[in-house]
Amino acid sequence: MCKNKSTATLLALIVLSLAALEIIVRITAPVLSENIRHIRQIPSILHGQTDTGDALTKSVIFMGNSLIGNAVDTTQFDKKINSQWNIRIKTNKVVPDGTNIWDWYCLSKTNQEFIKSNLSALVIGFAWDELKDYQSINPSRLAGHFCSLSDLPDLIHMGMNSPTTIIEYIIADASRLYSLREAIQKRILDKIIPDYKVYTQRLNLFNRTIPTDSILTQHHGDEYQLLSKLIMLYKEQNVDVVFIAMPVVDEYTIDAGLAQVIKKRGAFLYDYRGLEGLDKKMFIDPIHLGKEGSAVFSNRVSGDIYAIIK
């Protein structure tokens, strides 16, 4: 009897401890990383971006990951369009790190109310095969940041149908302690291991620049269902959708089918892989532009976007 009581007490303590940790993580999540702080601010960014209070002001959102986050200087972008073409414009960036088409689709679907409010154009920066359905799915990130449990049937229909992935998604939706476990681990290791952050950044760069030709030959069927659905979310609200192939140090190829899908859906594609005026010295690492490169990129993209929203 005493043993059973002790076991019950221990289980109760474990449950209470986990509940307490769950509350703490939900409250303090933004301190785990700058990326999580940015993700938490996305609804406010979109609300402020589309609530211009002026029907004549053009509103542009840049979406993607750190590639376009580093590349676009929104102040320079706005200044050039305003001064050179006398158009009032408001620009911002939604660029959570490490994301791809799955995250961008979920993010867009979850924030449809902002899409309906005076958004002129969405500009998505991508590289490699980040727009293809077979991109690596991070169910914990999707459930923890960009989607909800109600989106699960749609995601399963779109190809997220592995039992382990579905289970992880459900658990991550219920628990931030679980969905943010990697961020918590990185935060702890960064405190106790010298230069841990530097090593992980290098590893992330390596993983993101691995060629995907071997995956291309193994995939069958429609490769751009998510892309098509994302475009239609915005086109239904008369928002122009623009895709930009981002410049990086090492060359990569673009699937010929991508341009066909984008054109068919009424969106735009600009290829900046060999953008004139950029050289390798303007990159701070193999995939991210520095300040000088950002100036060149922002100057060029402002002209192309102006041609669409004018």
Describe the protein in words.
The chain is an alpha/beta fold. It has two domains: 1-31; 32-134 and 213-309, 3-Layer(aba) Sandwich (Rossmann fold). Helices cover 56% and strands 9% of the residues. It contains 16 helices and five strands. It has helices spanning 2-28, 34-50, 66-71, 74-85, 101-110, 112-115, 139-146, 152-157, 163-174, 176-179, 181-192, 196-208, 213-216, 225-235, 256-264, 291-309, and strands at residues 58-63, 89-94, 121-126, 240-245, 268-271. The protein has a five-stranded parallel sheet with strand order 2-1-3-4-5, sandwiched between helices. The longest helix has 27 residues, at 2-28. It is globular and about 80 Å long. It starts with a helix and ends with a helix. Mean pLDDT is 86; it is low at 210-221.
